Amino acid sequence: MECRDVRDRLSPFLDDELDPVTSREISLHLASCPDCAAALDRQRKLGESLRRDLEYHRAPDLLRARVAHAVRAAVRREDARSRPSSPTWRWLSAAAAVIALAGGTWLLTRGRADDLTAREVVSGHVRSLMANHLTDVASTDQHTVKPWFAGKLDFSPPVTDFAEAGFPLVGGRLDYLEDHSVAALVYQHRNHVINVFVWPMAGAREGAAPAVTRQGFHMIHGAHAGMAFWVVSDLNVAELATFAGMFAAPPARP
Ligand SMILES: [Zn+2]
After folding, report:
1. C-alpha of residue 8 to centroid of ligand 1, in Å
2. DSSP single-letter state for residue 215
3. Cα of 9 from ligand 1 centre, angstroms
């Protein structure tokens, strides 16, 4: 089968709509043709992101319906009490609805922003592994890596070596996420590479959020000392959480 024939059938192939013979021919071709395999991957990701966006846009409608329902219920309760009409109560319930709606929207927006960042973080991680461009400065010495960032970034990322805990620093590089330059710190645990993306974020809450998984990579994000950080690796969640915990609260140095 020619590349062109394969490309024409990627969409029905993904949706499992082809006859078994054609499907098998395409599978065989994909196994030996990186270009078509990459095209399949792009098509699959596009489908996934479309589905995600659809789910996202459905959420606000659900929220709005829930708030409207709550307001109607509150008004009914008030009527049932058959008290004289109280404008204050009506105003309060309207205000509560607005606050609930705004809060819900804020959470959705925040979740959406994190989701976008997560995608960029995974891309950055994969890029660093594929392009043979893991580090700009290869050093296990934090006193070499930290000064290397000076003059290249307008902030100074926290650089700590966690070799004693089994997470040696490997080096650092400049990367670009969310439309700004970020520091990428590279650590290793056994044969797993860990990228930590760091950038300043005023008012970020200290600590780390629960892990999320995208495309087989685990991520934990959080903040420490005015910096946002995203930790990403194919390392298992438990060990990645251990590492993120150290990163969020590095041991005091003498
Ligand atoms: Zn091909």
Report:
1. 11
2. T
3. 12
Average pLDDT value over all residues in the chain: 81
What is the distance in A from the centroid of ligand 1 to the CA of 23? Answer: 14
To the question of pTM greater than 0.90 for the whole model, the response is no
The residue type at 41? D
- Tally: H helices and E strands in the chain: 7, 8
Overall residue count recorded for the chain in this entry: 254
| Greatest C-alpha distance within the chain | 80
Helix axes 34-81, 87-130, angle to 10 degrees: 170
How far apart are the CA of 6 and the centre of ligand 1, in A?
Answer: 7
Measured in Å, residue 45 CA sits from the centre of ligand 1 at 18
Burial status of residue 46 (CB atoms within 10 A of its CB: 0-12, 13-18, 19 or more): exposed
Residue whose entry in the numeric block shows the structure tokens 């309060």 = 92
